[in-house]
Amino acid sequence: MEMDKHNCERLLIRFNRYAFFIAAFFVRLFYSSQNFRLAGDSADYLNIAHNLETRGSFALTSANGEVIPTAFRAFLYPFFLFLLGSNENLIIIAQSILGAATVVLTYNLGRRISREVALISAVMMTFAPMTIALTATVLSETLFMFLVTFAIYLWSRERWKSSGALFGLAALAKPVIFPFLIFLLMLAFIIPNLRVKFNKYAVVVFVALLVSSFWIERNSLLMEQFTLTQAGGYGTNLLFGTIETKAYDDSTGVTFFKNPLMQVSDELNNSEKDKVLAARAIERIKADPVGWLRARARQYPHLYLDSGESFLGNHNKLFASALSEGDYFIVAFKSINMIGSLLFLILALAGVYTLRGHLSGFFYLWSFPVFLAIVHLPLWIEARYFLPASPVMCVLAAAFICRKRNEKCPSKQSTPLKKNQPSHLITDAGLE
């Protein structure tokens, strides 16, 4: 009888995984087929993919038609596009698969706590507006979020080498992983309950560096100085972060590039331009630290508050324009998204509080969003920059919702968690 119950539970878990994958895949496929678009860095990614295909070179084509090897963009996403032949339909299908797989990984992470948390968090991720919208966009966020979530899930199962390998691949998509790994080691050293696994975290970092080392070496040789997986972007975001904006204005990212501060000699390559912009940013911060703090205070909420502009795509309008034109659908949609994203943040923070007695055991859940919140303090912010933390934020939010439904959360365990007990000892996890 006990064995039959165990088998039924396994079948239910498998059914849920398939169901969430199929639902998330078709939601993303349908939306992407109607709203496929380019944005921001898309042109660079596609240009590099084209040069990989036609010239076998990871290079950007300059304004005068010269093909120049570059370290300005990270390796993995242009290579991903190259493998897909930069074909629109293949990109839509591949990114829909990655988005759906991320939902399943979110479900698996939720299972580390309870059945209810798994279901609620997976539903949240299935219909999360920005994750759906970016599936339809030629940007690295969907691939990066999948790799990070997979790495975190393997970390939750204490598969240290495999987790490190996935973090290494994620670093080849976005170099922000490198400071996160340093942050991880620092916390593991500082927090007593984590110190016992310091060597395990060191293995994760070592493997991640090993996986990404070939591109670090290539970039360092190309730039003739030590360079990680990407040589640019920091200066631009640091300078953007010094410019004061309205508290809520979803048009500033476009207008910033027209700002005189952004004008740099065309004789410089992208990496050199980025260094010039970084120097300008530091000068502005030194000259007016109060103004910089004011700019940061106005921009920082954008990290968490999403108006839904990415989901609206070509139908997007500025909030003020929509209001003056009487387009109340846009006004209502953006208002609901802003309120919803604020509520989501509150629920996730409440989830951290709910798990407060087990924070070292759930280190893999809260460390990445905390890191992203800190690292973006001095930088220009878009809501999509926090997107990779969405899966673990969904799990944290669901943990609080579960707590409200059942005072003994995590639920349905044969034995309650002891304080700071590692999450891999939860009974439900054995069914995975």
Write a concise keyword list for the protein shown above.
single chain, 432 residues, mainly alpha, 2 strands, 65% helix, disordered C terminus
Structure commentary:
About 65% of the residues lie in helices and about 0% in strands. By secondary structure, the chain is mainly α. The chain has one domain. It has a two-stranded antiparallel ribbon. A hairpin with a 5-residue loop joins strand 1 (about 60) and strand 2. Helix 1 runs antiparallel to helix 4 (about 90-110), helix 1 packs parallel to helix 5 and helix 19 (about 365-375) packs across helix 20 (about 390-405). The radius of gyration is 22 Å and the shape is globular. About 45% of the residues are buried.
Low-confidence runs of at least 5 consecutive residues: 247-252, 408-431
Q: Describe the global form.
A: globular
- Most strands sheet: 2 strands, antiparallel
What's the pLDDT, averaged over the residues? 86
From the N-terminal CA to the C-terminal CA, the straight-line distance is 20 Å
Share in β-strands: under 5%
In angstroms, what is the radius of gyration? 22 Å
Helices and strands in order:
Elements: H1 2-35, H2 42-55, E1 59-61, E2 67-69, H3 76-83, H4 88-111, H5 115-126, H6 129-135, H7 141-156, H8 160-173, H9 177-190, H10 192-195, H11 198-223, H12 234-240, H13 252-255, H14 270-287, H15 289-299, H16 309-312, H17 319-325, H18 328-354, H19 363-375, H20 390-405
Antiparallel strand pairs: 1-2
Summarize the structure.
This protein has helices at residues 2-35, 42-55, 76-83, 88-111, 115-126, 129-135, 141-156, 160-173, 177-190, 192-195, 198-223, 234-240, 252-255, 270-287, 289-299, 309-312, 319-325, 328-354, 363-375, 390-405; strands at 59-61, 67-69. It is mainly α. It has one domain (2-431).
